[in-house]
Amino acid sequence: METIDVFAHVLLPEFYKRMLMLDQDLPKKQPFIQNPLLTNMELRRQHKKAGVRQVISYVNLNPEDYMSGKTAALLTRKANAELLQTVQENSDLFAGGVAMLALNNIDESLQILDDFVKVHKEILGVQLFTRHLGQSVADPAFKPIFAKCAQLGFPIWLHPVFDERKPDNNIILSWEYELSQAMLQIVQAEYFQEFPDLKILVHHAGAMVPYFSERINRILPEYLAKDFTNFYADTALLGNAKALDLAAAYFGCDHMFFGTDAPLGVLPAGATDEILTAVEEMAVSQSDREAILYHNFAAKLYRK
């Protein structure tokens, strides 16, 4: 049985060149983007884990933070075209891609969903970040994106970014907080109530939410607490079978997908081996394990 890694990353060469033209200090500001496997697909092939293909999305660099809405949308389109071409030319490595949007141009982002994502079956959905333009992803300005994704049946991959207002951001804990906070904001905006077909896949096994589930259940109204279980989650915890058991017990094995954050986390190529071992050690049935590794992807994300 093939295994599908639903949350792996790239920083493709042409897009990276354009972003460096906007900010030549990006490698210093975000050292993790210096990993050559983000850009070099032949090098990535050399480190490929047998039997595993990836769904790729861009690392958290977004043109909307550097330019006006019209220009950001144009660069986003070019980045998406490069992503599509990479998936098509490397089907041995990749099972699909996830499109980027520029949320300082909502009209054009909605158009990308219609004339790019809808048209190309290799593109499985879109990636949003926990904050856009300094605002929560659940800010009303971005609501049309959620509505359109629900209407078209396109999942949203939710990835963390730092809240730049905070002086103590760190790669160990901050992103998990930002993911959890964004999940709370989406629930409190009642998007799952308004858009019952909405699919949101959260990185890092749902972050803090499974651990604090009883706080959620006792503090929020029952209908909102229940909405947290509508999220989907990946396994990108760099291992830790017991934490994955907790996530699976909370979200349900049918809402769990194998994901690694590759090639990040464990050098040089990511934590695929570590997370595969953790999934094998989970206290779930073999059928649930196979669902996490492949069948949930085939049933819920793959576009025939």
From TrEMBL:
Gene Ontology terms: cellular component: cytoplasm
Superkingdom classification of source: Bacteria
A Gene Ontology biological process term: secondary metabolic process
Gene Ontology MF term list: carboxy-lyase activity; hydrolase activity
SUPFAM superfamilies, sorted: Metallo-dependent hydrolases (SSF51556)
Annotated ranges, domain Amidohydrolase-related: 67-303
Keyword set, alphabetical order: Lyase
Name of this protein: 4-oxalomesaconate hydratase
